């Protein structure tokens, strides 16, 4: 249970001696208000820590020996916060950079998908997984991983299921598992043979009620694919531990979900909190689980129940509540000290009894190199022509004044509003990028590497969410099939921007007059940036600043993250082959 290379008999002797005052404990955190997640109460006391774990609650200080005493200054002590479902690639940061941004917000454990990075590595997927998680135990947070359920060949998933720190199988594709894909059957069978958890991106918005029975029937017990109160009710009814995600879509979606929990009086024990996808910018500016707990409270969920949704509930679901999720003897001493339970403000963050962050600054820095995962660009657009990006009508009105075109909405993820067919002005044989008086940019979705003799797949339309009056912005996505998107007004400029990105394994680039204004390389298998947090934030900010000069007024996530999130829905709604 305790590890540390010490024989179990010696460990139980040592713990006996510590609690009887015959042996020194490592740390006493005193003068704190301790949150009891089991009784949902708060009490004044102290925590005694030995070999990284809590061994006693409020011991008599006259009867113990301890190496170090930490004065908690009357702050609240809550369990280290847990993200129930995070895509490792979504924030573009490699594991050490992620820790720099995330841990100071009080997050000490994540349950992570890594399917896009492994998918982008192709046949090197197993080696990429091993490099991604090398020395993971040195990170300032706990990480538990899932073997890819989608975007990765079955034989690679089978091997990754045997690796540490894997505890289960990641999410499937809706349209894949619902059609009886043989590789999905194999992946599910391997997991059932080994035991473990199967993540569920359930497909509630796209599949029939009958089809929705399949995943829970084969053993999936968690679901983060909910978008409204009715979705939540159905997810609970089917027996799912339902994960409320806050890193995807508009802020109104999150509030809709939390409002439904309060208004419909759903028992909060049903829920865990997760980010799903989140940017480094958001982590550093707004926070992580600490922020969503505060929003839960603002929406009417009692503070202690909100904290449990980001700690104990998740630990209990993953059958780790004997290790993490509460401040009780035997659990790892993952502790956050905050001056409020309703507005979480992490003053001190401990992992295994070690102070690793203070006042939103990481104190323990881990040096793990990822240079071996950097890949070179392989250009694939040599035969692309600017006119292939021209926006042509799906249909022209009888009077010739309007054209029907596709409209994509960056905030429409997860439901039908992601894409629509709309009528816009049509003048002198050209589409006018304007809808209901609102000026829009154009978008092109371009397959990067068509097979020999294959016509390149390109989808052209209008775009809502990033706007430029001139110039263009483009980025790439490598898995499961490499594609690129470009947003602009003129085909020649959009073409030049695509060609600039094509020189990298992955990048986001802004051009004006066919010359790069800002470049954000994403060169770890085209999915992660080989940068520190400061470098990553600076590169992202340069993209936003360049676009602001070109007419974009950005709100919410950085443009790079907005554009990358598009690929998830483009794939989901079959706009990528």
Summarize model confidence as the mean pLDDT. Answer: 95
Distance between the termini: 48 Å
pLDDT < 50 stretches: none
Class from secondary-structure proportions = alpha/beta
Shape: elongated
Largest sheet: 10 strands, mixed
Helix count from the secondary structure assignment: 17
Radius of gyration, whole Å: 25 Å
- Give the DSSP E fraction (strand runs of 2 or more residues): 25-35%
Strand runs, count: 29
Q: What helical percentage do the residues reach?
A: 25-40%
Domain Amidohydrolase-related: 270-353
EC number: 3.5.4.2
Protein name: adenine deaminase
Domain Adenine deaminase C-terminal: 422-566
SSE blueprint and pairings:
Blueprint: H1 8-19, E1 24-36, E2 41-50, E3 53-57, E4 65-71, E5 76-79, E6 81-87, H2 95-102, E7 107-113, H3 115-121, H4 125-132, E8 142-147, H5 154-160, E9 166-169, H6 174-177, H7 182-194, E10 197-198, H8 214-218, E11 222-223, H9 229-237, E12 241-245, H10 251-263, E13 271-274, H11 280-285, H12 289-298, H13 303-309, H14 312-317, E14 335-338, E15 346-351, E16 354-358, E17 361-362, E18 395-396, E19 402-409, E20 419-427, E21 430-431, E22 434-435, E23 438-439, E24 441-447, E25 458-464, E26 472-477, E27 483-488, H15 491-501, E28 507-512, E29 515-521, H16 533-549, H17 559-572
Parallel strand pairs: 1-4, 1-5, 6-7, 7-8, 8-9, 9-10, 11-12, 12-13, 19-25
Antiparallel strand pairs: 1-2, 2-3, 5-14, 14-15, 15-16, 16-17, 18-19, 19-20, 20-21, 22-23, 24-25, 24-27, 26-27, 26-28, 28-29
Helix pairs in contact: 3-4, 12-13
């Amino acid at each position: 249970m305790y590890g540390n290379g010490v024989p179990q008999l010696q460990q139980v002797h040592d713990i006996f001696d510590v609690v009887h005052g015959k042996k020194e404990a490592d740390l006493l955190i005193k003068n704190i208000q301790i949150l009891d997640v089991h009784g949902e109460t708060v009490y004044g006391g102290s925590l005694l820590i030995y070999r990284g774990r809590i061994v006693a609650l409020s011991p008599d200080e006259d009867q113990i020996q301890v190496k170090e005493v930490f004065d908690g200054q009357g702050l609240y002590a809550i369990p280290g916060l847990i993200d129930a479902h995070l895509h490792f690639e979504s924030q573009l940061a490699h594991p050490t950079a992620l820790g720099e941004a995330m841990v100071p917000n009080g997050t000490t454990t994540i349950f992570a998908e890594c399917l896009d990075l492994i998918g982008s590595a192709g046949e090197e997927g197993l080696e990429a997984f091993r490099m991604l998680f090398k020395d993971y135990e040195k990170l300032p947070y706990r990480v538990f991983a899932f073997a890819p359920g989608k975007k990765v060949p079955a034989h690679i998933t089978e091997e990754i299921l045997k690796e540490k720190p894997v505890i289960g199988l990641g999410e499937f594709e809706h349209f894949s598992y619902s059609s009886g894909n043989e590789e999905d059957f194999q992946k599910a069978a391997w997991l059932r043979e080994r035991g473990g958890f199967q993540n569920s991106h359930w497909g509630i918005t796209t599949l029939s009620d009958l089809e929705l029975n399949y995943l829970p029937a084969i053993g999936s017990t968690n679901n983060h694919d909910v978008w409204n109160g009715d979705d939540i009710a159905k997810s609970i009814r089917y027996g799912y531990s339902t994960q409320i995600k806050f890193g995807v879509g508009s802020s109104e979606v999150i509030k809709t979900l939390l409002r439904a929990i309060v208004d419909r009086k759903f028992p909060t024990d049903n829920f865990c909190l997760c980010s799903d996808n989140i940017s480094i910018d958001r982590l550093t500016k707004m926070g992580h689980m600490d922020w969503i707990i505060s929003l839960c409270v603002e929406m009417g969920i009692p503070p202690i129940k909100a904290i449990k949704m980001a700690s104990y509930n998740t630990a209990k679901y993953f059958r780790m509540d004997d290790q993490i999720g509460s401040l009780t003897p035997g659990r790892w001493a993952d502790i956050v000290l905050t001056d409020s339970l309703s507005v979480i403000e992490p003053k001190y963050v401990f992992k295994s009894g070690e102070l690793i962050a203070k006042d939103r600054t990481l104190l323990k820095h881990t040096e793990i190199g990822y240079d071996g995962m950097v890949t070179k660009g392989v250009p694939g657009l040599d035969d692309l022509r600017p006119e292939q990006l021209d926006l042509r009508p799906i249909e022209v009105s009888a009077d010739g004044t309007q054209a029907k075109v596709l409209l994509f909405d960056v905030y429409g993820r997860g439901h039908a509003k992601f894409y629509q067919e709309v009528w816009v002005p049509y003048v002198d044989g050209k589409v006018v990028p304007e809808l209901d008086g609102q000026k829009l940019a154009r978008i092109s979705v371009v397959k990067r590497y068509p097979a020999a003799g294959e016509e390149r797949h390109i989808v052209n339309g209008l775009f809502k969410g990033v706007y430029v009056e001139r110039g263009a912005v483009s980025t790439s996505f490598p898995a499961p099939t490499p594609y690129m998107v470009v947003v602009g007004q003129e085909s020649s400029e959009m073409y030049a921007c695509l060609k600039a990105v094509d020189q990298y394994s992955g990048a986001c680039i802004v051009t004006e007059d066919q010359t790069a204004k800002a470049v954000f390389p994403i060169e770890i298998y085209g999915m992660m940036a080989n940068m520190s947090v400061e470098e990553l934030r600076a590169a992202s900010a340069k993209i936003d600043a360049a676009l602001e000069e070109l007419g974009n007024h950005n709100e919410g996530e950085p443009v790079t993250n907005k554009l990358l999130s598009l690929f998830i829905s483009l794939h989901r709604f079959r706009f990528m082959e």
